[in-house]
Design a protein that fits this description.
single chain; about 450 residues; alpha+beta; Immunoglobulin-like; 3 domains; 5-stranded mixed sheet; 3 helices; 28 strands; about 15% helix; elongated
Length: about 450
């Protein structure tokens, strides 16, 4: 009988033991400490943190626990409280980690030590502790332009820009913010914006970058990156990667990564003036300039009745060209412009217009031809030529008067001259000459009288 009772007690003990279990739980999210350096001031090299972790007893037995921090990395001066816990079944308790951590950890997740929980029914437990350093750089917005027209303001990751066309010049204007306090000595950022796209359907790779410097606590001016949608890009969507890397003066690295989706579309009718060049664009007095025009069919349809017109009324230019353009094909035209001396100085806009279906506007562009006044050297040359003509007329008149023969001269051959009146010196010379003649005459008379005697 006693043996039976002992057996029953043993069986009950085993059954009761199997019903008792221990289950301590700490949420993984609680083991990660979010860190940002926004509160840093002056020349601080450490940051104060306070972080709470909840320990829950999901078992059906009371747990008496001891909590501690172990294996802390250099520079982590932390403590935990309380250090002991008594948790009944279903209870939880909060332990607080506080102290100082270094501010030279790069953005991202870093393990820095362990939370040790001892005394549990199932033995000791160790939980890894991590920091998650937040970026100290923010993308405030991105303006997207297509051929100088603003088409989108991007404020978040995974946004989309629609209705882009092959051949469009895309301009991205970035506006960034440095999240450090402006009083923090080591908060200035230097970095690079990089945009990347590698997709065969896009028709070409994009890999552009631009450097920037951004003082602590300030917003950036616009930082511009450009690219052109390839002319043979497929009608599809493409992911443009935006990667911004920066480093503060503690040598801490930060990175922001966004995706901007580009939607490329092709219109059925999309004729464009791809190039309009004038060489030279400026003439002085006279000369020749060459106008070159290139048109291309960017659309999905063949354009059998393409018309190109070049026009300027002042220059008497009114030219028309006809083309048959298949999808993706291009044609060109050239025009020589001659400017003669005496043409009015000014700016003359040359208008190029392309039509499909004979008279439906596709595209138009203008380029200016500048004609400047003739320089002074040209005017002097003209005056010299006029002077030479006058001198030749004088020489001709002189040749026509020889000896006592006087040839009749036409008024057109005469160059007018003006005689000067006699001067005082002329009168004195004349008087002296008369006096000498009188003296010589008297001397002659005296000599004749002497010999008669």
């Amino acid at each position: 009988m006693k043996k039976n009772i002992t057996l029953i007690v043993a069986i009950l003990t085993i059954l009761l033991s199997s019903l008792a279990f221990a289950d301590l739980n700490v949420e993984n999210d609680d083991l990660v400490i979010n860190v940002n350096y926004e509160a840093l001031d002056g020349s601080e090299k450490v940051s104060e943190i306070t972080h709470q972790i909840t320990v829950t007893n999901n078992g059906n037995v009371t747990e008496n626990l001891t909590v501690s921090l172990e294996n802390l990395d250099n520079g982590y001066d932390l403590d935990v409280s309380p250090k002991t816990l008594q948790l009944n079944s279903g209870d939880d308790a909060v332990v607080t980690i506080s102290g100082k951590i270094p501010v030279d950890e790069d953005q991202g997740t870093h393990q820095f030590g362990d939370l040790k929980v001892k005394g549990g029914s199932k033995g000791d437990k160790t939980y890894s502790l991590k920091t998650d350093v937040q970026p100290m750089l923010e993308i405030k917005k991105i303006y997207v332009y297509a051929d100088d027209y603003k088409v989108k303001t991007v404020n978040e990751d995974d946004d989309e820009v629609k209705n882009l066309k092959p051949g469009d010049e895309i301009e991205l204007k970035f506006f960034l913010k440095n999240l450090f306090d402006d009083n923090y000595k080591y908060g200035d950022l230097s970095g690079t914006i990089n945009i990347l796209l590698d997709d065969n359907g896009f028709g070409g790779d994009i890999d552009e970058e631009e450097d920037f410097n951004l003082d602590a606590g300030t917003d950036s001016d616009e930082i511009i990156l450009k690219f052109v949608v390839p002319e043979d890009a497929d009608e599809d969507t493409f992911d443009l990667e935006i990667v911004i890397e920066a480093k503060d003066e503690n040598k801490v690295e930060y990175i922001l990564e966004w995706i901007l989706t580009l939607e490329i579309e092709r219109d059925a009718n999309d004729l464009r003036i791809n190039k309009l060049l004038l060489s030279p664009t400026e003439l002085v007095c006279s000369g020749n300039s060459q106008l070159s025009v290139e048109i291309k069919n960017f659309g999905g349809d063949r354009q059998k009745y393409t018309v190109l017109k070049l026009f300027n009324s002042d220059l008497k230019i009114d030219k028309t060209y006809n083309f048959d353009l298949k999808q993706g094909n291009e044609e060109s035209a050239q025009l020589s412009i001659d400017i003669k001396e005496g043409f009015s100085a000014g700016t003359y806009p040359l208008m190029a217009t392309v039509y499909y279906d004979y008279n439906t506007l596709g595209d138009e562009k203008t380029v200016d031809l500048v004609v400047k006044k003739c320089p002074l050297s040209v005017l002097e040359k003209t005056e010299t030529e006029d002077k030479t003509i006058v001198e030749k007329a004088n020489d001709k008149a002189a040749e026509q008067v020889t000896g006592n023969n006087v040839k009749e001269i036409s008024s057109s051959d005469i160059v007018k001259s003006v005689e000067d009146s006699y001067s005082t010196e002329d009168y004195l010379v004349g008087a002296l000459f008369v006096a000498i003649v009188v003296i010589l005459a008297l001397t002659g008379l005296l000599v004749v009288a002497f010999f008669k005697k």
